[in-house]
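Service request form, structural biology core

Requester: graduate student, group of Dr. S.
Request type: structure prediction, single chain
Budget code: on file
Notes: please return the result as structure tokens.

Sequence provided:
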Amino acid sequence: MGLHCEKGFVLTCKKPIVEQCAYCSQHFCIKHGHIDKATCKSRRCMTKYRREKRLFDRQTWEDERYQLGVERNAVSLCAYPECANEVYVACGHCETFYCPNHVARYNYNYRTHTRRAITRVKGDVTLCDVCQPYLREYNQDRYE
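Core staff response, request fulfilled:
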């Protein structure tokens, strides 16, 4: 007895399988899944797939921007595409250099936890437009 599709609305579908879902590990037929994505069509698995795809696409875009920035920094130009200004300061996160028009200084607070006490610390960081969403990582508590 071979494997069969484990998906279906009320009863499990008994059609031959084509793939196994990468998220829920259930087997599915061509009707109940996407072969190229290795994902069944359930809402939970498709949500996980879309989230991972968004993260992967964002990381790919950031890597491309970083490579472009490094190439532009090699000739003393701002890492921002099509900017003709010279470099001024490095981004605190990606460490590529930008002109004053394409970076901003952000203040943040975080708590540091030690054995003896919890201390609130203030800091500041210079971030480019691409790295600005990572500011929330600087606000997280730190444990020593």
